[in-house]
Amino acid sequence: MNDTFAQHSGSFIRIRQEGRTEEVVRRLMEAIDLGLFAEGQQLPSETELAMQFGVATVTLREALAYLRQQGAIETRRGRNGGSFVRHAAELPTEILLKRLHELSTIELRDLCDEHLAISGTSARLAAKRAAPEHHQRLEHYIQALGKAESRRERRRADARFHIEVAVASQSVRLTHAEIRLQAELGELLWLPGTSSPEAIQSEHEAIYEAIAGGDINLAGALAEAHVSRGIKKLINLKLEMLSNQNE
């Protein structure tokens, strides 16, 4: 997990109500899936995690126990012991296609509407508020996408760029919403035939340049166009699947 996220993670992942074991599980799985916690990385202590989430320690322990059962983390004993993130295999294309099949075109459209609102607002605020360290993080993930060699690496670099735009907006709520959307939708956007790494990287670069240049309107418009193109490709793939099913 990068230093910027680690310093502010308490704000981003805090849960308002105690006793929300399922919510803690979901948030941790999102963080692991998006690479906010890297494979092999040791999680913070139970006390620290419970404080970050704003839940009781017993709730946090229940969530960690479930994650151990699912194979997402492992616990090591001894002086250097603790909970560590396990390597997660890339989801097969068939599972992602099944997930897309279960989403209706109306649901995809609603996701697009929400993501447009979040990404556009985040980019506009980032152009207004971003500091040099935010610019560096955005450049890092643009370069990471260019170097990525697998679908999982590309998806993570793409998701982290969008999350860092929200971080640069300096809005806790927008960052939280972007993380949730990337966990829900991001992997589908990298189904075979839906995304060109070169095209996505070029669009990221344009968004970054508008943010770094302080062009509020251009940053928002480019971010919205970027999201809209991705969702439209998913909707087209969904319609193609329905057409093939009816033949």
From TrEMBL:
Pfam families: FCD (PF07729), GntR (PF00392). Gene3D superfamilies: GntR ligand-binding domain-like, Winged helix-like DNA-binding domain superfamily/Winged helix DNA-binding domain. InterPro entries: GntR_C (IPR011711), TF_FadR/GntR_C (IPR008920), Tscrpt_reg_HTH_GntR (IPR000524), WH-like_DNA-bd_sf (IPR036388), WH_DNA-bd_sf (IPR036390). Residues 18-88 form the HTH gntR-type domain. Keywords: DNA-binding, Transcription, Transcription regulation. SUPFAM superfamilies: GntR ligand-binding domain-like (SSF48008), Winged helix' DNA-binding domain (SSF46785). This is FCD domain-containing protein. It comes from Zobellella aerophila.
